[in-house]
Amino acid sequence: MPIVRWNPERSIFSLKSDMDRLFDNFFTDRPGQLQSYSDMTPIVDVEETDQAFLITAEVPGIKKDDIKITFENNYLTISGEKKVEKDRKDKNFHHMERSFGKFSRTLGIPAGVMLDKIEAEYDQGILNIKIPKAEEAKPKQIEVKVK
């Protein structure tokens, strides 16, 4: 797991949004419509190989053009918006669990990556991001001579 620099502003805002979400869910007037934290937060896997960091994110129901990926100060941010279908408002729903709205997920990535070589592919709700390591960050095998 990478070591990530602590940012007090990010921690405070994250705590505030977590508390807001908790109270929104607790005081909802429709128990069948609770939205959990993961409803609009992409679920991700982060894998490290000798050559790169590989991130796989689940973002179902979102168009490729509605996803934005940025890398700044060793933080990768995946953000976007799942837009409400236009004909939804005229229907008489008995139960709704699908959620819509903006989402964002930020991951700390260690230094020593090649920013100009980052690649992303999106297919059927799965976003794959490859962040190649710089040569100096790749593990090297050093032969030790015994005297």
Structure write-up:
The protein is an alpha+beta fold and 147 residues long. The protein has a single domain, classed as Immunoglobulin-like (Sandwich), CATH 2.60.40.790. Helices cover 13% and strands 32% of the residues. It contains one helix and seven strands, in the order αβββββββ. The strands form two sheets. A four-stranded antiparallel beta sheet has the order 1-2-7-6, with no helix packed on it. Strands 3-4-5 form a three-stranded antiparallel beta sheet, with no helix packed on it. A hairpin with a 2-residue loop joins β6 and β7 (126-132). The longest helix has 19 residues, at 8-26. The radius of gyration is 20 Å and the shape is elongated. The two termini are 37 Å apart. Mean pLDDT is 78; it is low at 28-38.
Name the CATH class.
Answer: Mainly Beta
Shape: elongated
User: Which CATH architecture would you pick?
Assistant: Sandwich
What is the average per-residue confidence, as pLDDT, rounded to a whole number? 78
SS elements, strand count: 7
| Rg measurement, Å | 20 Å
Number of domains: 1
Separation of the first and last Cα atoms: 37 Å
| Assembly state of the chains shown | single chain
Structural class: alpha+beta
Stretches where pLDDT is under 50 for at least 5 consecutive residues are 28-38
CATH topology: Immunoglobulin-like
Number of helical elements: 1
- What is the beta-strand fraction? 25-35%
**Helical content band:** 10-25%
What is the ordering of alpha helices and beta strands?
HEEEEEEE
Q: Order of strands across the biggest sheet?
A: 1-2-7-6
